[in-house]
């Protein structure tokens, strides 16, 4: 799919190794100090675009080239007559461009103090209309942070809490540039100016939160890009057009059939929400196989969904149709009833070559199955805990490298994997990786995954590629969740409410 997915443009993401390659190519054309100066000018431009009235600045710098960017930025401010002070956190002598930037800043009259000496001058009430710049570590950071760096991060966040605007250069200190992983201490920026190209850590995990507003300054690197590590679909791309578009001469047969399997005692709502989501996301026809006790609730809420009780005569023939997609797992439960349905309907899907979405307890039963072959085009939708069960590892291991975790699952089961998290990773067995969605607290509620599985079923019935279907379903679900949260409030809005916003 490359630079677009389903007709939506995507942005390239890179790991640190590839960023270093881009740097070396760029330095073969431009002097490296000239590129550092360009970065400082870009930072200057972006900050004043965001806060044109600001007059005072504190720049927290480390000893590397990220700190060099900050020092040259401070020099620009000094020349322009702004109040600027540098708090220096370098732990060893600077070298190369970083030392040259330090000497140039001093020559321009920039006040540079050791961090420990400088911070004592600021009281909590002195941070109104001031910008604090995090130019501490950049992509060279390694976790865990040292005690000295932790103190600097805490001070910057405290200044932010007291009213300062907080800007990160390249990536917020405390975030792993390749994974987005962060421990307790991480700079929580209002604005991140990412230099050269976007990093995985700018959008993944805690990094996607710590970045704040994320902007890119390519510094002339766009013409020399290697293959990206991943691609990012920003949900704002869906502001003007929803996935699964319909033509004026459409008929229901064009949009496939989705059957949801689940809803044991006490969990009927999960299967009902999933089937409703499939219908509202545009599936041509939708079926539901559940406990008989849940039929009346389904029919009263969604009379368009063909709801059948498990054990109904010839239910397989009635719920398996041409171009069928199965969603197995919402409310399926971990008792014998759910196990029997999982085994029976997965076997039917293989026989009939129907792609399957496995969610929730469908993933639980998958983890209990030693040898399994999924139909072509199938999708797994684990959250971090479910992924840990499938991989046999702690959740923290997955947080520390979610891309590798998603690719490992995709290759193990020869399918597409939707690894749900603060931002969601979609990967396939061929090594493609996409990031979709943004941090959306409204989705931290039971039922969000059930709604996503139904929407994914509808997208899988529409698109020929399971990767395309998965990326778009995740972005669509996230986009609608944001709209519903802004309309109803993060606390009040419920997962099923977002279905009323998927066409807005």
Automatic annotation (TrEMBL):
Binding site for AMP: 420-424, 449
YjeF C-terminal domain boundaries: 235-504
InterPro entries xrefs: Carbohydrate_kinase_pred_CS, CARKD, Nnr, Ribokinase-like, YjeF_N_dom, YjeF_N_dom_sf
Enzyme Commission designation: 4.2.1.136
Keyword tags: ATP-binding, Isomerase, Lyase, Metal-binding, Multifunctional enzyme, NAD, NADP, Nucleotide-binding, Potassium
Biological process (GO), any one: metabolite repair
MF-aspect GO terms: ADP-dependent NAD(P)H-hydrate dehydratase activity; ATP binding; metal ion binding; NAD(P)HX epimerase activity
Reactions the enzyme catalyzes: (6R)-NADPHX = (6S)-NADPHX; (6S)-NADPHX + ADP = AMP + phosphate + NADPH + H(+); (6S)-NADHX + ADP = AMP + phosphate + NADH + H(+); (6R)-NADHX = (6S)-NADHX
Family the UniProt entry places it in: In the N-terminal section; belongs to the NnrE/AIBP family. Belongs to the NnrD/CARKD family.
PANTHER family reported in the protein's UniProt record: ATP-DEPENDENT (S)-NAD(P)H-HYDRATE DEHYDRATASE (PTHR12592:SF0), ATP-DEPENDENT (S)-NAD(P)H-HYDRATE DEHYDRATASE FAMILY MEMBER (PTHR12592)
Subunit record text: Homotetramer.
Known role: Catalyzes the dehydration of the S-form of NAD(P)HX at the expense of ADP, which is converted to AMP. Together with NAD(P)HX epimerase, which catalyzes the epimerization of the S- and R-forms, the enzyme allows the repair of both epimers of NAD(P)HX, a damaged form of NAD(P)H that is a result of enzymatic or heat-dependent hydration. Bifunctional enzyme that catalyzes the epimerization of the S- and R-forms of NAD(P)HX and the dehydration of the S-form of NAD(P)HX at the expense of ADP, which is converted to AMP. This allows the repair of both epimers of NAD(P)HX, a damaged form of NAD(P)H that is a result of enzymatic or heat-dependent hydration.
Protein name: ADP-dependent (S)-NAD(P)H-hydrate dehydratase
Organism: Marinomonas spartinae
């Amino acid at each position: 799919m490359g630079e677009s997915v389903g007709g939506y443009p995507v942005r390239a993401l890179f790991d640190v190794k590839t960023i270093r390659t881009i740097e070396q190519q760029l330095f073969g054309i431009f002097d490296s100090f000239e590129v550092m100066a360009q970065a400082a000018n870009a930072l200057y431009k972006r900050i004043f675009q965001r806060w044109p009235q600001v007059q005072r600045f504190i720049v927290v710098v480390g000893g590397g080239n990220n700190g060099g960017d900050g020092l040259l930025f401070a020099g620009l401010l000094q020349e322009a007559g702004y109040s600027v002070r540098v708090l220096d956190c370098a732990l060893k002598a600077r070298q190369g461009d970083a030392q040259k930037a330090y000497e140039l800043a001093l020559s321009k009259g920039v006040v540079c103090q050791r961090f420990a000496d400088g911070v004592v001058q600021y009281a909590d009430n002195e941070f109104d209309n001031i910008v604090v710049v995090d130019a501490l570590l950049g992509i060279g950071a390694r976790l865990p942070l040292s005690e000295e760096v932790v103190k600097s991060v805490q001070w910057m966040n405290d200044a932010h809490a007291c009213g300062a605007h907080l800007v990160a250069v390249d990536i917020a200190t405390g975030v792993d540039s390749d994974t987005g992983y962060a421990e307790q201490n991480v700079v929580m920026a209002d604005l991140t100016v990412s230099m050269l190209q976007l990093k995985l850590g700018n959008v993944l995990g805690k990094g996607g939160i710590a970045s704040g507003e994320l902007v890119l300054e390519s510094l002339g690197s766009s013409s020399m890009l290697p293959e990206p590590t991943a691609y990012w679909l920003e949900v704002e791309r869906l502001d003007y057009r929803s996935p699964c578009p319909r033509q004026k001469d459409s008929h229901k047969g064009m949009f496939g059939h989705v059957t949801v399997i689940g809803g044991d005692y006490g969990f009927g709502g999960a299967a009902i929400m999933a089937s409703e989501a499939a219908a509202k996301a545009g599936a041509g026809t939708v079926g539901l196989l559940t406990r008989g006790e849940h039929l009346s609730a389904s029919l009263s809420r969604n009379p368009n969904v063909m709801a059948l009780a498990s054990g109904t005569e010839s239910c397989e023939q009635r719920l398996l149709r041409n171009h069928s997609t199965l969603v197995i797992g919402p409310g399926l439960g971990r008792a014998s009833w759910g196990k029997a349905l999982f085994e029976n309907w997965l076997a039917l899907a293989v026989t009939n070559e129907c792609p399957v979405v496995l969610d929730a307890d469908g993933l639980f039963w998958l983890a209990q199955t030693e040898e399994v072959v999924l139909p072509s085009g199938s999708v797994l939708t684990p959250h971090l805990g479910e992924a840990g069960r499938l991989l046999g590892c702690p959740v923290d291991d997955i947080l520390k490298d979610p891309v590798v975790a998603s690719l490992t699952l995709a290759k193990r089961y020869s399918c597409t994997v939707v690894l749900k998290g603060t931002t969601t990773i979609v990967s396939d067995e061929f090594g493609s990786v996409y990031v979709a969605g943004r941090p959306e607290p409204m989705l931290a509620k039971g039922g969000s995954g059930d709604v996503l599985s139904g929407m994914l079923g509808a997208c899988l019935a529409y698109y020929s590629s399971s990767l395309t279907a998965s990326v778009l379903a995740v972005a669509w679900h996230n986009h609608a969740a944001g709209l519903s949260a802004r309309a109803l409030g993060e606390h009040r809005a419920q997962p099923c409410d977002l279905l009323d916003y998927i066409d807005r």
